[in-house]
Amino acid sequence: MTAAPEQVDVLGVAREQVLERGVGLSEEQVLGVLQLADDRIPELLELAHQVRMRWCGPEVEVEGIVSLKTGGCPEDCHFCSQSGQFPSPVRSAWLDIPGLVRAARQTAETGATEFCIVAAVRGPDKRLLSQVRDGIKAIREDGNDIQIACSLGMLTQEQVDELVAMGVHRYNHNLETARSHFPNVVTTHSWEERWDTLRMVRDAGMEVCCGGIIGMGETLGQRAEFAVQLASLEPDEVPLNFLIPNPGTPYENYPVVEGPDALRAVGAFRLALPRTILRFAGGRELTFGDLGAKQGMLGGINAIIVGNYLTNLGRPAQDDLDMLQELSMPIKELSKTL
Amino acid sequence: MTTGQDAVTTGQGAGAVGLGAVTTGRGAVTMAGAVTYCGYCGKDLGEADHAACARRLRVIDPPRFCSACARRMVVQVTPAGWTATCSRHGEITSAR
C-alpha cells in the first residue's frame, strides 16, 4: 500500500513564486486556483491583492470607452450583439465628431486617464480611420489631453503606422478566449490573425491591451489556458469581461457567470499576470453586483472602465469613483502615464 | 414601479400597459405616448412576463424597441448616457 501523494497547496506555491519572485503561475497552477473551494476564495483574493500591490502599486487606472461605429459587423463573434450575422436588436449607428468629443470630455471629467475609441468592424477602412483621425484632432482642440486608445479590429502594418502617427498610445484587440476554444466562438477569422495584429501593435511601440470574456462555454482548463496564453503575450493591459448574454446572439441563453467563479477567475488571472494592468470591464454588473465589485477590486484588479460600455450600460461613473475612495485606492493621474 | 435608478415614472419593461408617460431604462427622460411594447424585447407588454426584461433595463441595457410601435430603435450609448431614436416616434434620451 502506497501513501497518497501530498497535495500541493497552490496558494502556498503562489505566495513564494508570484508574490515574492513575480513569476506568474503556469497553466496547471492556474487551473489549481480555478478549482479552489469556495471557502478559500477570501485567501485567494487577499494574495492576489498583495501581488497587485507589490508588482503594480496602489493606483487604479480609470478608463472610459465609446462606440464610434456600432453594429453591422461582418464577423460572427458569438457573444457580440453587434454582429450583422445574428438577429440582434442592435442597429447600426455612427457617432459624429461632436459626440465623440463630448464622450471624451465626459470621460476626462471622471478623472480617467484613458479614453478608448471602439468600432465594430473586422478591420478599419479609410473612412473609419479618417473619422478616428478627425476625432482625435477634435478632442485635442477641445483642450482634452486624455490618453487615447483604439479598438478597430484587425490591422495591416500600414494601419498600425497610421494609428501611431495619430498619437494612439494603446491598442485593444482581445483574443477573447483560449486558442483551443476560439473556433467555437468565432468562425470568420482565427485566433492567429488576432495574434498577428497584436504583434504588429507591440512592434510599432503602442501599448498592447488584450483580454477576453469569461463564461463563453470554456472549461476551467481552457480558462487556465487562456490566462497563460495572455501572459505569454506580455500585454500592458488585460480587460476581463464576463459574458453578458445578449438577445439574438448564439449565447443569449448562456448563464451569467456565478460570483464565486468570477472571483476565482479574477484572482487566478492576477496570479498569472502579476505585473499587468488587470481591468474590470463588461459584465461585472450582472455577475457581481455592488458587493462583488469591491471584492474584485480587493482581489487583484487595478483598473476599471467607468460609465457605460459600447452597447450595454455600466454603473454610473460616480458610484465607482466613490467605491475607489471608500477603498482608499488612488486613481492614476495623467502625468504619471506620460 | 420604476425601471431605472434615475427613472421617475412607470413604464416600459415594467409591465405597464396603456397611455401615459414612458420610462425606458436607467435614467430615461419621459415621452408621452402609448406604453404598449417592451423596450427590451419588443413584445407586447400584456402578453408575457417582462420581469426579466425590466431587470435588464434597470441594470445594463438601454431600450432597443420603441414602446409605442415596437420598431427597433437606433441606439447610441456614450460613457454617461444614451439616446434611442425611433424612425416614427422620435428620440428619447437618458437623463444623465
Would you write up a description of this structure?
Chain A is of the alpha/beta class and 338 residues long. Chain A has a single domain (59-336), classed as TIM Barrel, CATH 3.20.20.70. Chain A contains 13 helices and ten strands. In chain A, strands 1, 2, 3, 4, 5, 6, 7, 8, 9 and 10 form a ten-stranded mixed beta sheet that branches. The radius of gyration of chain A is 19 Å and the shape is globular. With 96 residues, chain B is mainly beta. Chain B has one helix at 51-59; strands at residues 18-20, 33-35, 74-78, 81-86, 90-93. In chain B, β3 (74-78) and β4 form a beta hairpin. The A-B interface holds A 64-67, 70, 89-93, 95, 99, 102-103, 106-107, 110, 244, 247, 285-286, 306-314, 316-317 and B 5, 25-26, 40-42, 59-62, 64-65, 72-82, 96.
Radius of gyration of chain A over all CA atoms, rounded? 19 Å
CATH superfamily of chain A: Aldolase class I
Could you tell me the mean pLDDT of chain B? 74
Distance between the termini of chain B: 20 Å
Radius of gyration of chain B: 11 Å
How many strands, which pairing sense, and closed or not: the largest β-sheet of chain A?
Answer: 10 strands, mixed
Keywords (chain B): Biotin biosynthesis, Iron, Metal-binding
Domain Biotin synthase auxiliary protein C-terminal (chain B): 73-95
Function (chain B): Required for the activity of the biotin synthase BioB.
Organism (chain B): Saccharothrix tamanrassetensis
